[in-house]
Amino acid sequence: MTLRSIIPLLAIAAASALAGCGGGGSEESPQPVATSSLSKAQWIRRATAICTENLESRLQQYATYTAQHSGESQEKIFGSVIQDVVVPGLEKRDAELRALGAPAGDEAQVEEILAALDRIAEVARGLEGGPPTHAYEEAPDRALAVARKYGLTECNG
Prior knowledge:
The protein is mainly α. The chain has helices at residues 3-18, 40-68, 74-99, 107-127, 134-150, and strands at 35-36, 102-103.
């Protein structure tokens, strides 16, 4: 397999891994998560739906983007997909997850999930078209571990 044939697979894997739930938002620290009237089960169901819909949307955007830029180098496409598709998708998902609030008494756990997810977008923003870094590969794993600890198992890309 050549580098040229591996790069598209890496972009898909990155999109999927980064879909681990969450995102960034602005460079500023977000407000603490508010308490909501949702139960833990309701929060998990809604968060799963947000993550699933967001991943599907980003994968569709990825397919459209790569089709529109088929003449460009795979390396350029990878960097552009991260900045133009993955990061904005993560930021949108993060905002939607934060808007759910947290079940009463679970604010610290939900905040931990959101912080881990914020790290994914932060690291992705830092790639600026370059190759994946160690931090880039670790951030989704960390976010997924934190989410699973709370019971959010379907938000894994």
